[in-house]
């Protein structure tokens, strides 16, 4: 039988590891989005120089701007998981699943 102290140490290590992964995610998010915004003008200029279609150029521009938004939303969910913040609908779902599986046992 494992000692409670061993379990606490394991849980603490797991939380530290989750934090490290989250911080790496933030760093990657910042680096990629800074690069995207720095090259945005160059990318748009390249397609304009190629006599590109205006709709295609707008599509490229829109996609470059949308990446940080959707990735940021994902990053918020990652933060909620790491910091153990549970949204009400997630709590309700977990409780329903728990009751369902307890009823099956």
Count of helix runs = 3
DSSP, total strands:
0
Low-confidence region ranges: none
Measured between the Cα atoms of the first and last residue, the distance is 24 Å
* SSE ordering: HHH
Helix content: over 70%
Main pleated-sheet profile: none
Cα Rg = 22 Å
Overall 3D shape: elongated
Task: Give the count of structural domains.
Answer: 1
Global mean pLDDT: 84
Strand content: under 5%
Output the structural class.
mainly alpha
Brief digest:
This protein has 105 residues and is mainly alpha-helical.
Topology:
Elements: H1 4-49, H2 54-82, H3 88-104
Helix pairs in contact: 1-2
Notes on the protein architecture:
InterPro entries: 2TM_dom. The protein is an all-alpha fold and 105 residues long. It is built from three helices and no strands. The longest helix has 46 residues, at 4-49. The relative contact order is 0.08. The mean pLDDT is 84.
Notable characteristics:
mainly alpha, 2TM_dom, transmembrane helix, 105 residues
